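Example 9 (inverse folding). The structure is encoded as follows.
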């Protein structure tokens, strides 16, 4: 226990050297904001609190990797939280998979939702708003696209399993999912553009 306490103390010292603030101060400042951010992605308040705490623990543990001349601490911290939350969603397959290609060029939904990390909190707000818009349009998709998109993106089912479940051939399922994704992007484009204009 004593060695762990010493190690934690050393990490806190390095943390203050790298950030200019002590760990407790920045924890109190950013923890509520992290909960707000992560809860908008995962839609689970308790999970958001756990992920926010974990994000700070990771930031403290990996503080030697933080380079203050390259980014603000908030940017680095929120990036950790974003990655941790998306990984948690992916592991539990509770929401949209942002890494799945929707066309032959390898474009993914993430390409339409993620933003440059240079504008910390604004970037995370844009990300959350666009995610909500994408989910909204998923609910309004017409058949046969709605069913296959939900099975693929929300339930995380494999193409072959969807084909088997719906008693359709694999090529038909792939085509329906690809076309459904294109419809989603087309429907959401104007709202995405409005969000972009808000932050210009």
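The amino acid assigned to each position is listed next.
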């Amino acid at each position: 226990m004593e060695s762990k306490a010493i190690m934690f103390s050393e990490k806190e010292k390095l943390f203050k050297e790298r950030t200019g603030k002590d760990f407790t101060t920045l924890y109190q400042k950013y923890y509520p904001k992290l909960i707000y951010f992560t809860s908008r992605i995962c839609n689970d308040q308790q999970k958001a609190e756990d992920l926010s705490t974990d994000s700070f623990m990771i930031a403290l543990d990996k503080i030697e990797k933080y380079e203050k001349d390259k980014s603000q601490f908030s940017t680095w911290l929120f990036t950790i939280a974003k990655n941790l939350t998306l990984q948690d969603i992916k592991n539990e397959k509770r929401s949209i998979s942002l890494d799945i290609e929707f066309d032959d060029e390898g474009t993914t939904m993430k390409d339409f939702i993620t933003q440059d990390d240079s504008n910390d909190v604004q970037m995370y707000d844009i990300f959350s708003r666009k995610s909500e818009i994408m989910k909204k349009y998923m609910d309004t998709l017409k058949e046969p696209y709605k069913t296959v998109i939900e099975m693929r993106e929300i339930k995380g089912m494999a193409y072959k399993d969807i084909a088997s479940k719906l008693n359709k051939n694999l090529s038909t399922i792939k085509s329906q999912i690809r076309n459904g994704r294109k419809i989603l992007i087309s429907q959401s484009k104007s709202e995405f553009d409005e969000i972009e204009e808000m932050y210009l």
